[in-house]
Design a protein that fits this description.
Elements lengths: L7 H25 L5 H30 L11 H32 L4 E2 L3 E2 L8 H36 L18
Helix pairs in contact: 1-2, 2-3, 3-4
Length: 183
């Protein structure tokens, strides 16, 4: 049974970002089918604000991770599962950086400046080019679909470890420090 846990800051980053990503994705799904209205504009504003938050948080999370490495994995799993876990984690981090960046590029190309909760504006990264904006929109959505699939895989793997393998892996990323002792 795994007992070495992530530090509380890493755990907070993980769950905060998970919640923000789910909300951000959910907002995009809801507003994409709405007719042009103040509610749709507000929804997209929140989507962008939260997307920028994910971008900032993933940078902070990577700095934190570089200075506070993951605890050693104390359970045995097949090599293919370990490789799949490493590749999935790498892809999740990459997508958490790239998706907001592509969204920012898309907004710039469509002629919409991105602001952060009305506090400040992010610089436009591209000149206005509606055709490019539409291509970037497609890429943004495609990458988001990949992220959702990887998050589902991540959750299913965690549940497998918790309920089938019963190896305590899920407790490494929980807020609760309680753990069962191995008999």
């Amino acid at each position: 049974m795994s007992t070495v846990r992530y530090n509380p800051i890493s755990v907070a980053f993980h769950w905060l970002m998970a919640a923000i990503i789910v909300v951000t994705w959910s907002i995009a799904i809801v507003v994409s089918d709405m007719p042009l209205s103040p509610a749709r504009i507000t929804g997209y504003s929140w989507h962008k604000w939260l997307g920028v938050t994910v971008f900032f948080l993933v940078i902070l999370r990577l700095v934190w991770r570089a200075t506070h490495p993951a605890p050693q994995l104390e359970i045995k799993m097949p090599v293919w599962q370990e490789r799949a876990m490493q590749l999935t984690h790498f892809a999740l981090y990459l997508l958490m950086m790239v998706i907001p960046l592509v969204g920012w590029l898309m907004s710039s190309a469509k002629g919409y400046t991105v602001n952060y909760f009305g506090l400040f504006e992010l610089p436009d990264l591209l000149s206005k080019d509606k055709a490019l904006g539409h291509q970037l929109k497609d890429l943004h959505e495609y990458l988001a679909d990949i992220l959702v699939a990887l998050v589902c895989l991540h959750v299913l793997a965690a549940l497998k470890h918790q309920f089938i393998d019963k190896d305590g892996l899920l407790s490494r990323m929980s807020f609760c420090s309680c753990s069962k002792k191995k008999d």
